[in-house]
Amino acid sequence: MNSYSAFAYVYDQLMDDVDYIGWVDYLEEIFKRYNKRPKNIVELACGTGNITNILAKRGYNLIGVDISEDMLFVAQEKARAMGVDVIYLNHDMRELFLPSELDSILCICDGINYIIDEKDLLNVFSSVYNHLKDKGLFIFDISSYYKLSNILGNNTYAENFQEVSYIWENYFDEEQATCDFDLTIFIKEGDLYKKHEESHCQRAYKENEIIEKLKEVGFHKIETFEAFTFSKPKNKSERIYFVCEK
Ligand SMILES: C[S@@+](CC[C@H](N)C(=O)[O-])C[C@H]1O[C@@H](n2cnc3c(N)ncnc32)[C@H](O)[C@@H]1O
Q1: Which InterPro entries does the UniProt record give (predicted)?
Q2: If you classify domain 147-202 with CATH, what class do you get?
Q3: Predicted confidence (pLDDT) per residue in 117-148, tens digit
Q4: Which of 11, 100, 151, 162 is the most exposed, having the fewest neighbouring CB atoms within 10 Å of its CB?
């Protein structure tokens, strides 16, 4: 079952309460904190371009990469409507072929949680390292182990809107440290609703596991923050930011 296929077309509606402008402000604060003025930026797992298009509108050169053609279709439509030029590439971030010497590489809102296999994670990090110029920044976030195991895991969420409704059932596997999301989405078509089903799987990583892997590929200047702050992550932080300078 594909991830982010039917879901792609309702993703933005379901993420309606997310403050993407504030999110991009935070990324720019990180650039400032590190005295960077990046020009060429790649966003991995860019989805429907919520972050990508806003950054492009603010004058950065953006390439957005995602494994889902449907998410990219929506991203491109939005870029056109916003009058911004973004190159969108349908790639799996586990096999990256990008222009090298990038100023910054981003992976925002869980992209890294979708890398289940530790060897793949090492490949992603190593390839990011090789595509960055010296002193370039790799910025990404994860949903924390705490969030996937204690909040989302073994819980069911549902919302019911006029055009779309969904049921989101989650199962956390302690042994594999993975959270399976089973999504059932009902999208209005005329007077009826069509049922779509898809499954996603995210890996719950502990902060130290990730830091070890980043060091293994060559990153040594690494800071972690509780999302949208510059404070250290806490036991119950739900989103953790990693900022790595090459
Ligand atoms: C939660 S969405 C985040 C989208 C976007 N960054 C945002 O902030 O709205 C996660 C995205 O990761 C993408 N993804 C998952 N695995 C991927 C992979 N191996 N390579 C590239 N993209 C991937 C999915 O297609 C999806 O668009």
Answers
A1: Methyltransf_25
A2: mainly beta
A3: 999 999 999 999 999 999 999 999 999 999 99
A4: 162
Per-domain boundaries in the chain:
8-143+205-245, 147-202
Q: Do domains 8-143+205-245 and 147-202 have the same CATH topology?
A: no
8-143+205-245 domain in CATH 3.40.50.1820? no
Task: Report the atom number in ligand 1 closest to the C-alpha of 20.
Answer: 8
Q: How far is the CA of 191 from the centre of ligand 1 (A)?
A: 32
Pairing state between β 102-107 and 156-160: unpaired
Cα pseudo-dihedral 50, 202, 226, 216, rounded to 10: -110
CB 70, CB 9: distance < 8 Å: yes
Please give the distance, rounded to the nearest whole angstrom, from the Cα atom of residue 208 to the centre of ligand 1. Answer: 23
Question: 178: helix, coil or strand?
Answer: strand
Ligand 1 lined by 183 (C-beta under 6 Å): no
The protein residue whose alpha carbon is closest to atom 4 in ligand 1 is 47
Q: How far is CA 76 from the centre of its chain?
A: 17
